[in-house]
Amino acid sequence: MNLNVLQQTKLLKMVGMVKTFPGVKALRGVTVELAKGEILALLGENGAGKSTLIKILAGAFQPDTGDIFVDEQQLKMQGPADSRNAGIAVIHQEFSLIAGLSASENIFLAKPLQTYSFIHLQQEYSKAKELLDKLGADFDPRTPCRLLSVAQMQLVEIAKALSDKASILVLDEPTAALTPRETSRLFILLDQLKKSGMGIIYVSHRLDEVFQIADRMQVLRDGAEVATTAANATTQTQIIKWMVGRDIEQSGVSKKEVVGKVVISAKGLTNGVKVKNVSLEIREGEILGLTGLVGSGRTEVARILAGADIPENGEISIEGRKLNLRSVSEAIGQGIFLLTEDRKNQGLFLDRPVHENFSIASLFRFAYFGMINKAREIKAFLSHKDSMGIRVSSPLIRVGNLSGGNQQKVLLARWLERKGKVFLLDEPTRGVDVGAKEEIYLLLRKLAAEGNAILLISSELPEVLALSDRILVMHEGQIKGEIKDVAKATQEQIMELAIQ
Ligand SMILES: Nc1ncnc2c1ncn2[C@@H]1O[C@H](COP(=O)(O)OP(=O)(O)OP(=O)(O)O)[C@@H](O)[C@H]1O
Ligand SMILES: [Mg+2]
To answer: Which atom in ligand 1 lies closest to the alpha carbon of residue 397?
Structure first.
């Protein structure tokens, strides 16, 4: 780290931040300092208080107590406009894009380039295209956001924040859905911004990445600061220990040769330009990894297998029987479940309590003479809560009030509770902390060992390599390669297949 940077006045100070929600002390007096030209990583388990701190900085929440200073000037924060005017740009963990507007319109929503004439729309479009190109996005900025995948939406959110003339940039889990290629483009941009004097706060559970870009690291646990350190003075093991308060052994998942019979098979699936002639099969006890760049068609394949999209061509069979899936509920009836990557729009009922979000897919197991037995439902939930470490003070809380990673765990618990045959998991550990990830990996191996067929879509290559028995790599809607000997495979090998 550059010593000159330290001696300058602080770009940002958040002093003694306290925030309480009913039943939860989310922040217990946290102080954060940020200098010009540095990247500070903010780390901690799911529910540690990272997003709460960031929402206060964005003017979305009022703290109970605590002061914010930008360039040593105290900031009177009444709402998001005050934050923006102080030069703070925030990329939130949960997206805030308007589905009906195009990517380009979303990017310039809060600050249209003057009036809405045709010329300005053109200017917005080319500016949006320039930003998105830099990030490696391959879609047209005129695409309505409702047609974008989660990863593509993430790129739009990043472009939106970069389009502000901000001096402080805050990114809450910006790469949770990005593959290594998009991530490395983002890092090149962040490095340029940092060199131009911007101060950056970066929240992520991907510790490898954090070590690539952060100058300093600050770890929170239960709403309080545990440690702050220069990045080059610490290790991943130490950071994990600070985060979870104990040592974690990484990835001891055991695999054995899969010899079971084929559970699900698909032949020649084709749907528009997103899915072209895709064939695959998954056996009993097998975890099949499906990976590829953002937009390569992974999610679309899962949606077809789950009955959510009806393909133009191709057939799907389960245990040798041909299926003619017309809807998600038909697929569920056949024991095929989809864990969607889009937990906010397609997965969770944010206003409903945690226990209902958990039990919704298996109500028949909790029903008794037509009435839902809430006590049984809650008991079942509590066992998942313990095994995955879901941080929630009561199952009666609305799921929208949980931290991002804890929401993801509730969604996963919903499907793990079901008895099925085929589990299609789209980014199952998105935003989940390192400790809980290990637990989830063990649960998924157990699910496979019980004879289920699992399709694992993940952008995180170490995860795909650690869990999969076999890997398929997609590019532009087609399957470009298969890796059978996963033990010997490398991330580079997957990337080569993904960009051919
Ligand atoms: N609007 C809210 N209402 C009630 N409780 C909330 C609300 N927002 C956050 N919380 C609680 O505050 C605590 C901190 O949550 P926060 O979202 O800051 O965690 P986080 O560190 O960002 O976690 P993650 O890594 O999962 O994103 C959690 O216990 C969460 O349930
Ligand atoms: Mg968060």
So the answer is: 4
Residue to mutate (ligand 1; options 403, 407, 434, 437; most atoms within 8 A of CB): 403
CB 403 near ligand 1, within 6 Å: yes
pLDDT for 116 equals 55
Q: How is the chain split into domains, by residue range? A: 3-244, 262-499
pLDDT for the residue 331 = 92
Ligand 1 pocket, 46 CB below 6 A? yes
- Find out whether the beta carbon of 404 lies less than 6 Å from any atom of ligand 1: yes
Tell me which ligand sits closest to the C-alpha of residue 44: 1
Q: What's the 430 CA to ligand 2 centre distance in angstroms? A: 11
| CATH code matching the domain that covers 3-244, chosen among 3.40.50.150, 3.40.50.720, 3.40.50.300, 3.40.640.10 | 3.40.50.300
pLDDT in tens, 35-50: 999 999 999 999 999 9
Amino acid at 425: L
Q: Which tens digit of pLDDT belongs to each residue from 327-372?
A: 988 998 899 999 887 777 778 888 898 988 888 776 666 666 666 6
Counting Cβ atoms within 10 Å, is residue 297 exposed (0-12), middle (13-18) or buried (19+)? buried
SS3 211: helix
* CA 51 / ligand 1 centre spacing (Å): 7
Confidence of residue 254 (pLDDT cuts 50, 70, 90): low
Per DSSP, the residues of 97-140 read --TTSBHHHHHTTTS-SSS--HHHHHHHHHHHHHHHHHTT--S-
Q: Superfamily assignment of 262-499 in CATH?
A: P-loop containing nucleotide triphosphate hydrolases (3.40.50.300)
Predicted TM-score of the model (pTM): 0.83
**DSSP secondary structure letter of residue 223:** T
